[in-house]
Amino acid sequence: MLTPLVCLTSASISIPTLYALDAFDKVTPLRFWFTWWAGDTLGVLLFAPLCWIISGSPRRLWRRRAPLVALPLLITTGAVVAIYRLALGWEHQQHLQPYRLKAQQTADMLQAEFNEHVRFVGTFARTLGDTEHILDRDKFIRIAGGYVDHRVEIRG
After folding, report:
1. What is d(CA 42, CA 4) in angstroms, rounded to the nearest whole number?
2. Given this model, what pLDDT does residue 23 score?
């Protein structure tokens, strides 16, 4: 029951010290403090009893307690890791969704622009192909100018 309170000590001393030493980004010390505290708390709650099983005295007494203590802790640890991985995957997908939507919109817009350019180049190629003589510069600029003037990307 006291584990969360006891684990406040390490995070509350270490994070301000690291903050004073300029060891991490000054915008998020509270997040680092919480992560430190949560890691210490989970470590004490899940792994300290496993260490006691391995190195506890008297050995005969801990040998009998080992399955009763270790099995639930290992199952709990597995559940915590699985839930964390699932939550991480879900959060990753949530953050990627707007990015994918924006990327798709950008790709659609670029595809529409490319299609328009291909249509223009095809039309212009047919126009030049129908001409039996070489166009002079002024006529060429007049024909292409209406399309190219508003499209800097194709001007070259």
Report:
1. 9
2. 78
CA distance 135 to 125: 12
Name the residue with higher pLDDT: 152 or 35: 35
Question: Which two three-digit tokens encode residue 99?
Answer: 């990015």
What angle in degrees, to the nearest 10, is found between the helix axes of 59-130 and 48-55? Answer: 140
pTM of the predicted model as reported, rounded to 2 decimal places: 0.46
Q: Is 21 helix (H, G, I), strand (E, B) or coil?
A: coil
Angle, helices 29-42/8-20, rounded to nearest 10 degrees? 150
Q: Long-range CB contacts (< 8 A, 24+ apart) of 20-28?
A: none
Cα 93 from Cα 56, distance rounded (Å): 44
Name the token pair of 85: 């991985």
Gap between the Cα atoms of 18 and 117, Å rounded: 57
Ramachandran category for residue 129: left, alpha or beta (phi over 0 → left; psi -120 to 50 → alpha): alpha
Helix axis angle for 137-148 and 59-130, nearest 10°, is: 140
Helices (H), the chain: 3-6, 8-20, 29-42, 48-55, 59-130, 137-148, 152-155
Residue 37 tokens read as 């505290």
